[in-house]
Amino acid sequence: MINWPNFVSQLFNGLALGALLALISSGLTIIYGTLGVLNLAHGAMFMIGGYAGYVTYSYTGSFILAVIAGSLFVMALGVAMERIIIRHFYHRPHEDQLLVTFGLGICFVEIVRLIFTSQSQVVPPPALLQGITSLGFLFYPTYRLAVVGIVAVALGALFLILYRTRLGMIVRAGIEDSVMVDSLGINVYRVFMIVFGIGAMAAGFAGIINAPVVSLTPGVGDDILVETFVVVVIGGVGSFPGAILGGLIAGEIISITSMFNPGYAYVMLFAAMTLVLVLRPHGLLGTQGRE
Amino acid sequence: MSLLEVNGLNSYYGDSHILFDVSLRVERNEVVALLGRNGAGKSTTLKSLMGVVTPRRGSVMFDGVEISGRKSHKIAQAGMQLVHEERRIFGSLSVEENLVIAGLTASQRWPLERIYEMFPRLRERRGNRGTDLSGGEQQMLAIARALVRDPKIILLDEPFEGLAPVIVRDLMKACRDLAEAGQTIVLVEQNLAATLALAQRIYIINNGHIVHEGPAQEIKAQPEVLQRYLGV
Amino acid sequence: MSTRDFRPGSAPNVSRRTLLQAGAGLIGGSVLPASIASRAFAEDHPAIGTYPAGTSGSSAFIGISVPRTGTYAVQGEDELKGYQLAIEHINSGHELIKKISPKTSKGVLGKELKFGVADSAAKPNEAVQAQQRFISENKAVMITGGTSSAVAVALNKLAQREKVIFVCGISGSNDTTGKDCVRYGFRQNFFGQTAAAAIAPVLIKQFGKNKKAAYLTPDYTYGHTVTKSMQDRLAEAGWTTVTNQVSPLGAPDYSSYLLNVANSGADVLINVNWGHDAVLSTQQAKQFGVLDKMKLVVPYQVPFIARETGGLMQGVYAATDYWWTIEDKYPLAKMFNEAFEKKYGYKPEWGAENAYVSFAHWARMVEEAGSFYPPDVIKAYEKGETLPSLVGDVHYRPEDHQCVRPVVIVRGKMEKEMKNKEDYYEVIEIVPGDGLMQKPDAFGCHLGDYT
Ligand SMILES: Nc1ncnc2c1ncn2[C@@H]1O[C@H](COP(=O)(O)OP(=O)(O)O)[C@@H](O)[C@H]1O
Ligand SMILES: [Mg+2]
Questions:
Q1: Tens digit of pLDDT for each residue in A26-48?
Q2: Which residues span the domain enclosing C88?
Q3: What is the DSSP string of C115-128?
Q4: Cβ of A120 and C77 within 8 Å?
Q5: The model's pTM
Q6: Which value does ipTM take for this structure?
Q7: How many domains does chain C fold into?
Q8: What is the pLDDT of residues C401-415, one digit of tens each?
Q9: Does ligand 1 have an atom closer than 6 angstroms to the CB of B84?
Q10: Ligand nearest B206 Cα, by number?
Q11: How many angstroms separate the CA atoms of C84 and C367, rounded?
Q12: For C439, which DSSP code?
């Protein structure tokens, strides 16, 4: 299997996988960076984005509406979750935060299972993007190609929000030192709510964008959560550029390793994470930041 | 009515009781110093005023309003600013972003131009990230960031600590200018000479208790107090 | 000061969807004082495992663990329905049960069957924990579980250690009645070796000799043994393996594996993945154009794959334990399909069939032994008598406790050939079981002790 065309194919596939991971991870990392809460329900948010989009698609037949509805629904869910539950846990020990988000994730998955059963649901890609495209060196599903572009645009939008707006400035400051932001007269709890909403929306958006690629089951977010976590650790907790770099690295590791021996793809991923933790405990682009 | 009146303030870290019935008062346009050994509770006092640490008992009247127990951003909006001992500037933001973010919710603010006149060094480094600044520059930025909000009172926690003498001189001059312009200041400092040069009144805190209060000039005449509580 | 209740067994580390699902009057049954239990059992046989405690009351308890979450959840639910229907039929003395187990009147030896259900998530440790609880707390007289051979093998070991009979759920690994076989374990369904032996000749006839095959293999005992059996069988006709893509159970994406397959130059893609893994990998194979380049074969057919993949199984050859349209040939299958569909609203798949038949066989063995004493029940199985099943006559081999039963070869129907919405497959051949089996000791089976 180790030949030039296959290598180039896998390199490209790694980019496509990595882009998606980068988007989901950026949501997780800004939430963790700002609120200090590792949201273990993030995988469930990804899954719910897919199902919300699926329901919209079933009623309207429009993929675009599905994407919008999926993203907005998960954003609203994120805001509600922050307002109703998470905010009571900011001053509780980390273990409590992990337990409550983990528990919420399980609840979300089981509720979806109750409604939709475990059988997989399919959201077809828009007609324009069906089929296979030849890139010269490989044939690649057209929709997956489009996903790379869509995700790049989404990441670009996130970048603009984070680096070119006041809200983004506050979020970046909050990632470093949310107490200080509060002391400067900015209601940091409202910022937390917004960040949670945006982070959740990133996952939800990725969930519906990814739905035509994977077919939906209630467990679709479980593995993603683990991969996302690895990405955040590799890139550096709280670092948006780190999430992108980490995502791309993870995507390439999975893809390239699969070329030699698929069984080792995850082994290599965790080995890479361990290596990063040893050499740079705060991740590739992380700072010593928060306490 | 004093600008700040603190009565019977008690603060804790978890179960450990740090401040015991701390009471103090600061008049408008006054510079008051809080002295004490390392670990006496000076920083905790300032943090309790700012709401970074939430006091369990006691009252803090600020400009006629009870602020104890409020969130920091409310206290900041009421006109108080704390310059932390560790400065806590945002390292990933530029100098100017640090200043802009501070002013976002202020009811009135200093124009950046006025800040840069006071600290010309910051104008030169306005595009640099916070992490790229020297210690002295960081301290300037920390003070400037508080001033942007044109606070009614500014709490300075050891602003001269660990800095080169020339920079200490500059910063002291800046503080004196502020005081002369009528800025109310609470100053925590180990450097006795610097403190006495700036402050009109002093409090001494020891093991979380206020043990002395009086005009700054008189303290030099009480070597036994200095010896007992400050070790000098 | 209040004292805190100490409640053993309320430890939080039990499987999250563990739930006791006892039928009416469980409390009445299991709380009956043991003192009024019949003395006769205890005098005839020494106590062993949960015997005689498990049958001292008016009921007997069965521990069921199926995956209700994770990649095998859909199949687990189907199995559970088969188990529930079997228990209902046994308790009521349904005529279908009587056809398989003639001595059954109501219940088993007059005891009403109760059961508990735990979610194994297809994870061995979760299944073992749950069954350990069913054994120690509910005195289960029989346990079941599988839908992952890793679970089946783990429960084999538990059954042998606890001396409680294990009637295996879906398990395709050669090891389950091969190197990991036990005296206390029994398997009804077909497995890697028989699947390969049954489907290989069909593939060779269909596609010819000296073909190049690519494999998608899940990385555990089931996947490895099925792939090995297929490779060995097809090698006899000169088939070669150009690539074997091993993936973890529940892999979220198959793109890298499929790129390797697409670039391998294979003629046939043999997909050994199962559950949602099979659905996803097949759908993605379509997306990557792999199915346009090569023929798909599913040697160990996944229940529900045709429903879940849309039209992707059209023209695809697969081996299976059961497909409902064989009811034209087998009257018992017809009875089963009708009873099942009436209760659950869809045609049963082979998870349900295996569940139902294996419980019916167990009930028959206990009736024939005349006692729940496990060694007697085991010996009843080991007589190797010919038994009715939903796919005709079968028997259990005494040497490895594997049921010798036919394998059904199917091919996905084109949409226009389908007579109704569940008519996904055409039955190509029902291959008799005897010729498909390896020699009993070929996979290193050593059954353990009776006591
Ligand atoms: N975050 C904290 N948690 C627990 N104890 C603390 C913390 N910060 C300070 N302390 C303790 O509180 C006491 C007062 O500290 P602090 O107010 O920082 O003293 P000072 O500023 O006068 O040197 C010290 O005994 C110190 O060890
Ligand atoms: Mg201090």
A1: 999 999 988 889 999 999 999 99
A2: 8-191+329-404
A3: EEEEE-TT-HHHHH
A4: no
A5: 0.83
A6: 0.93
A7: 2
A8: 999 999 999 999 999
A9: no
A10: 1
A11: 20
A12: P
